[in-house]
Amino acid sequence: MALHNTFSKKLVFWLIVLAGLALPQILQDTELHLLSIGCIAAIGAIGLGLVTGYAGQVSLGHAFFLGVGAFTSAFVSGDPAGRVYGLGITNLVVWLPVAGLVAMLAGVIVAPLATRLRGLYLALVTLGLVFIGQHIFNEWAKMTGGGGVGRSAATLDLFGYSLSKADSIGTPEQKIFWLAFLLLLIFAIAARNLTRSGVGRAFTAIRDRDIAAGVIGVSLPKYKTIAFAISSFYAGCAGALLYALIGHIEPGAFSLVLSVEYIAMVLIGGPGTISGAIAGAFFITLLPRLTRDIQPLIPFISTAPDEMPNIYQVQTILYGVLIIGFLIFEPRGLVGIWFRIRSYWKNWPFSY
Q1: What is the torsional sign of CA 193, 234, 230, 265?
Q2: DSSP 3-state of 216
């Protein structure tokens, strides 16, 4: 029942921690920026994995909760005298939990629908959230800056210490990576412990057969609401951090494509596992970089967005192809591939 119940798991965990501490001294700032985005995206993917992979509630509205978190953090951190609303509280310790809590509140409001619907019907309802959110984000100009304009994101300050300025500790990219890596560890360990608790076992029971779970005493309204609330909190925090790292928020970014990206993270990484959500998030985050690197090998694909076919269309197509491929050939995702490799070497040289 331990969090790491074998020596190999403990060793791998501490090797990952040491790697996270050492990478900023090895990699360039551009690579660190990309890995920081991967860490933050992994937090959002863990949240979606809790409600979809563990609780079995298909959600296509993750982009809405990411947007709520991003704009809430920008509101709390924004300039009170600016063209948009702001409170001027730039401390990350304040605006990050506030962004998560406001997104959680939105999730709790949506949760009653989840107790009455499931499967395709629930997916369509959560899909509607994306379009409702896009309309609100585009029209509420005093909060979001308006469609096509946007507003500045939250400021990366920690008790008056700016993470966006170079100093003796390191470059901004190095400090931001350490922060993103630390937050990913905290959120991942919290989610892992949640899944090992009675709440996590109730999620799994609902996912496997909700009627049977209700018969044996699992309260479906209660645990579905908890699942949506926690997932929304993770999404709100991820949205706040992601756009604080980018520096600018544009309402058009929170579209269905963003929700599909997070669905791809969970399905490709491996639904029902925390490590799978993390692996899928890094895979999808690094995928555009990989496609750009292979573009010189495929000269007929353009890098200009107004020419066809272009590299951005290839990335979108790859999302769909990868989702279909993993669902057909490896439903357990990247984690499933790792399980197969591990089982092979544990049983080697025997085949049983």
Answers
A1: negative
A2: coil
Give the span between the Cα atoms of 28 and 25, in whole angstroms: 8
Cβ–Cβ < 8 Å for 70, 44: no
Three-state DSSP class for 302?
strand
Residues sharing a CB contact under 8 Å with residue 253, sequence separation 6 or more, in sequence order: 67
Please tell me whether the peptide bond between 288 and the residue prior to it is cis, using omega within 30 degrees of 0.
Answer: no
Residue type, 37: I
Q: Do the Cβ atoms of 201 and 54 come closer than 8 Å? A: no
Element (H, E) at 197: none
Query: CA angle, corner 77, sides to 145 and 159, nearest 5?
Result: 160
Q: How far is CA 180 from CA 21, 35, 83, 117, in A?
A: 11, 9, 30, 35
**Interacting residues of 310 by C-beta distance below 8 A, sequence separation 6+:** 301, 302, 303, 304
Give the separation between CA 325 and CA 329, rounded to whole angstroms: 6
Asked if 260 contacts 326 with a C-beta cutoff of 8 angstroms, the reply is no
* pTM of the entire predicted model: 0.91
CA–CA separation, 43 and 65 (whole Å) = 13
349 upstream amide cis, omega within 30 of 0 = yes
Chunked into runs of 10 residues, the chain (352 residues) has average pLDDT values of 80 90 88 93 94 89 94 92 87 93 93 78 88 92 87 87 82 91 95 92 90 89 92 95 91 89 90 91 87 70 68 76 85 86 78 62
- According to DSSP, the β-strands at 161-162 and 248-249 are unpaired
Among candidate residues 58, 27, 4, 39, the one with its CA nearest the CA of residue 267: 58
Nearest partner of 106 among 130, 76, 141, judged by Cα: 130
